[in-house]
Design brief:
13-stranded mixed beta sheet, 278 residues, 4 helices, single chain
Length: 278
Amino acid sequence: MSVDPSSYVASTAVVHPDSHIGPQCHIGEYCVIERDVVIGRQCRLEPHVYVKRFTTLGDENEISAGTALGTDPLDKNFSGERSYLRIGSRNRIREYFTISRGTQPESCTILGDGNYIMTSGHIAHNAVVGSDTVIASCSLVSGYVEVGDRAFISGGVVIHQYSKIGKLAMIGGNTRINMDVPPYFLGVGFNVEAVGPNLVGMKRAGMSIADVRSVKRAFRVLYWSGLQRAEALEHLETGEDADAITQEIAAFIRNSKRGICWARRKKRGRETSEGPEV
């Protein structure tokens, strides 16, 4: 066992000799750390945290009680090969959350830096979560999902496998994500629908007024202009008002395999869901 002398390991913790714990860590009561685990400096593990093999944590992570990291994937095709969970630095993962490692041999589940992950949820195998995201309590992130930087996923959200949530998108509570949500948009509903730009999130992120206007313009072009999808994307990429923001949104949509969510609008006094013409 490689434990830096400046770290504290509770007497009831079980730490495998073939693991590594960096400087100034705190390993709480009844934690279990398996072989082939690397924990960086100044990480704090509260009691009853379980870190399974092939898991790596960066620096200054705070892991709350009852959390399990690097669990075997919830995939019937998994047969025990070596795969990984890679967690960056400065993440807060609260009580009773679980994150699986990858399914295929040598594949990874990845969590970036500075994320705030709340209680009683799951991030599945081969998901890629960016940095500075918020994933609220009881949300479920399925396999191969991609979540962009600074996205906000509210409580009780369920995300279908292979779905993508773009940078600085916000998902309302109890939403089912079964299509991709472009960057900077706000999605809600049983089957996710775009209801407009994520104005609060963009303000908190310090985006300029010009960039916010670009997001609003992109939303109108995609959903309300009546343009076919190809025409709308071309307009966002090369039109007279095209800029880095509109081009970023267009690139996300072109790379979407599931297709992007439709939009919710009010029509004759009631809400309906409509998408861009194809």
